[in-house]
Design brief:
Blueprint (H helix, E strand, L loop, with lengths): L1 H22 L9 H13 L4 H7 L1 H4 L2 H7 L1 H6 L1 H6 L1 H25 L4 H7 L6 H10 L4 H25 L5 H23 L1 H32 L1
């Protein structure tokens, strides 16, 4: 059954949640969170195999990587602003990557996590295709990496802007960089709804953090293994 109804169900839940969010703009009404919870409930309630649902939604899943590439459009629209602030952007994104990977290694080691789990968690703040690839190259488990990325993205979309408001971060460029660096594609989607500038800088941070993570994470893991 899920093979035939997976795509209509997924799309219906997504667009229904977006329509509800326009009427009630509460952070909890997230077009990723709500459909995910509903689909999990349906799979459990009717004892449906996850593999069948995944097979049915393959056309949507196949669009994931092209969607990441399409984020180049808002980058192009904000090219001048980005070029004028290239140095602080690189410094901020590198700091974000170092904090993300190092805290994962430190906390995970303190809690006794094995290397495979650490490698799966270390890519939590970059978008799913990159996270799965990088974590696998580090000896991690791509499925765990993907699940953690989704959870981090949803949490970032829920609490990101309220937290930025609490910290009195009002500059749209800074908001976009923070969301893209911490909440990847889901945070970028939320940023795009806030404004063009937030969406562009969030896209930029997501891409740069993904590239930097792929370059820096293996070095940090090598240092971690040497120290331990």
């Amino acid at each position: 059954m899920m093979f035939w109804f997976a795509i209509p169900l997924t799309l219906a839940l997504y667009f229904a949640t977006r329509a509800l969010y326009r009427r009630l703009p509460w952070p909890i009404i997230n077009p990723v969170l709500i459909p995910t919870l509903v689909i999990i409930a349906i799979l459990l309630l009717f004892n449906l195999p996850l593999a069948e649902y995944q097979h049915g939604t393959f056309p949507i899943t196949a669009l994931l990587e092209p969607a990441v590439v399409a984020l180049a459009l808002p980058l192009y629209q904000q090219a001048r602003q980005i070029q004028a602030r290239l140095k602080p952007i690189l410094v901020c994104t590198l700091a974000s990557v170092l904090i993300s990977v190092c805290t994962t290694l430190g906390i995970g080691h303190a809690m006794g996590a094995d290397p495979a789990l650490l490698a799966s968690l270390a890519t939590k703040s970059i978008t799913t295709p990159l996270a799965m690839s990088v974590s696998q190259s580090l000896g991690g488990i791509p499925a765990i990496a993907a699940a953690v990325v989704v959870v981090v993205g949803i949490l970032g979309a829920l609490i990101g802007y309220p937290l930025l408001k609490l910290m009195r971060v009002t500059d749209p460029e800074a908001q976009g960089l923070a969301m893209g660096a911490c909440a990847h594609a889901i945070g970028t989607a939320t940023s795009a709804e806030k404004g063009v500038t937030q969406g562009a800088f969030s896209s930029l941070a997501m891409v740069v953090c993904g590239v930097l993570t792929a370059a820096v994470a293996p070095l940090l893991f090598a240092l971690y293994h040497w120290l331990t």
